[in-house]
Amino acid sequence: MILPFMRKPLARVMQPTVYTNMERVVFQPATYRGMQRGINQLVGAIRPTLGPRPRVVAIDHVDYHDKTPRLLDDGGAIARLIIELPDRDADVGAMFLRDVLWRLQQQVGDGTATAAVLFQAVFQRGVHYIAAGGNARRLQTFLEQGLRDILEQLNAMVTHLSGREELARIAETVCYDPPLADMLGEIFDIVGEFGRVEIRPGRGRELEREYVEGMYWERGAVSRGMLDGDGQLRTDLEESAILISDLRIKHPQQLYPPLALVIRNNIRSLLIVVDEISDSAIGFLLSNKHPERLRVVAVKTPGHDKEQKAWALEDLAVLTGGRAFVHAAGDTFERIRPEDLGFARRAWADRYNFGIIGGKGNARQLRQHIATLRTAFERTDNPNTRNLLRERIGKLLGGSATLWVGGMTQREIDERVERAKRAATALRGALREGVLPGGGVALWSCRPGLEARARAATDPDERAAYHILAEAMAAPIRTIIANAGFDPSETLAELKRYGPGYGFDVMRERVMPIAEAGIYDPAIVTKSVAYVAITSAAQALTIDVMVHHAQPEQAPLPDLSAPKQL
Fold first, then answer.
1. pLDDT tens for residues 389-436?
2. Residues 384 and 106 sit within 8 Å (Cβ to Cβ)
3. How many helices (H) and strands (E) does the chain have?
4. If we measure between CA atoms, which residue out of 346, 273, 271 comes closest to residue 303?
5. Is residue 566 part of a domain?
6. DSSP label at 336?
7. What is the CATH number of the domain that holds 129?
């Protein structure tokens, strides 16, 4: 039956598949059918992983000698490992969604399974409407309009949490590992949103953490001879001067001016930061080693490229109150003055890192510099740039921690490390933008508003878009309940009776207040999931033609240099 608001199907959707010498061109309705097959296969592999009681997906190992399959419950990892489907029409749909999910995980660390389920729900219902005569382009417009309503409703639900226990609850919704979640809650309660947290494989079965005072960079001393031989191979410099540069020291004579300057000014400790230093210059420093008069340690300029090195020089200069000597500007140490040196209460260096504690730069300039970096962090959507800016802010704020993740086997350790990294990303988002009711409740709570807009709509495409979104908002919570072994229809009927503020706790197996259950999701994750899933599904609905090359290349990993706007 065709409803009154549905239009007659357009003749163009009945065009056949066309073959050429080099390409295969696919038209509607084969385009939608092929994409649906691929999307359904990918979502079918990811759907079981959604919720606190997920099932797992076994993937054959690519190594011929390793017969043990990988057991995964991470939607992003599963999508990444599905490289190509044998059905080339289906492969287009699967790879489209794969790219969406992988980008999402890189940006917010979680939410890929929810996004997959939501994407599928919007796309499937949209295809049915378009096949019955709806207009794909107008439907896309109204789906994006409905998305704005969803985001407004989600913003109204945001609350802010703090404290170790509340942060641990959020972490547990991502990693489903209470001891790991508790440790992450403690760490982020101490170091904060921008604090530097390194997550590394542990050496045993237990979780361990270490807090580092001040800030440090991954560049150690250029020679072991500069380190104290007390077993730790580390040197601490009290009330140290800092010589900041990216200069290349090829001859010992280049170091004469700064060394003479610090000796004249009775400075007893000096940390030299240079881009390169020759063996002869290192030998000069070691041969003139007099700890009772002057202790000197040389380290290399942090950063892997020119831009990162420039950032490190800028941060060090602001932090310590010194001047950066820049090779590209033609700087040398010939006319160095006392005010060009930076100072810190303590500096240290070991074989792999160097750090600064209590930098003596201008406090006002430091606050302004951090505020500038925060503004840049908020404005950029490139995940790589955001990570670098976050690290810079964390170093300047001085909060650093290292978490060693242990386990029974190497495979368990590797999986826990990945879960810890995703949970850490989610915690940063929660600290920055707050939290929303978890377990699919936040999206479910948007349904009444969407249904009201659908009833008020006079345009058929607009009304269809709001109906599609209202039904799709129930898909994540239905999946979570079903994965836990319960009947979604009965549970959602009970949830409706209780009204707003309630959710279904699958661990306690009952409907209860969200605040009491402590079920929360980072707001940035939920909003990003809604945005990415709906806009991507709406875009996929406008694909009319697929062109297959005679010899397709294997799908590469997504290019993250230009992510979609969130």
1. 888 888 888 778 889 999 888 888 888 898 898 888 888 888 888 889
2. no
3. 20, 21
4. 273
5. no
6. -
7. 1.10.560.10
The verdict on 22 and 144 lying in the same domain is yes
The number of folded domains in the chain is: 3
| pLDDT at res. 6 | 37
Residues 414, 450 within the same domain: no
CA 437 to chain centroid, in Å, comes to: 21
Interval 344-370: pLDDT, tens: 999 999 988 899 988 899 989 999 999
Residue 161: DSSP 8-state: -
Helix (H) or strand (E) holding 451, with range, is: helix 447-456
* Cβ neighbours around 211 below 10 Å, total: 13
Q: Burial-class residue 14 by CB neighbours within 10 Å (0-12, 13-18, 19+).
A: exposed
> ∠ CA 224-228-234 to the nearest 5 degrees?
75
Residue 424 is part of a domain; what is its CATH number? 3.30.260.10
Buried b (16+ CB within 10 A) or exposed e, 56-95: ebeeeeeeeeeeeebebbbbbbbbbebeebeebbbbbbbb
- What is the SS3 assignment for 422? helix
Q: Which residue has the tokens 């790879």?
A: 95
Residues 378 and 500 in one domain: no
Residues 134 and 52 in one domain: yes
Q: What is the 3-state secondary structure (H, E, C) of 79-143?
A: HHHCCCCCCHHHHHHHHHHHHHHHHHHHHHCCCHHHHHHHHHHHHHHHHHHHHCCCCHHHHHHHH
Q: Are residues 353 and 299 in the same domain?
A: yes
Boundary (domain end) residue, out of 435, 454, 475: 435
Distance CA 93, CA 557 (A): 16
Task: Categorize the per-residue pLDDT at 16 as very low, low, confident or very high, splitting at 50, 70 and 90.
Answer: low
Domain extent, residue 515, equals 18-159+438-549
- Decide: 105 and 38 in contact? Cβ < 8 Å: no
Residues in the chain: 566
Q: Which CATH number belongs to the domain containing residue 310 in this structure?
A: 3.50.7.10
Domain check: are 272 and 330 in the same one? Answer: yes
DSSP tag of 321: T
Q: Which of 27, 4, 33, 40 is nearest to 132 (CA)?
A: 4
pLDDT of residue 3: 35
Q: What's the confidence (pLDDT) of residue 19? A: 54
* DSSP code for 51: S
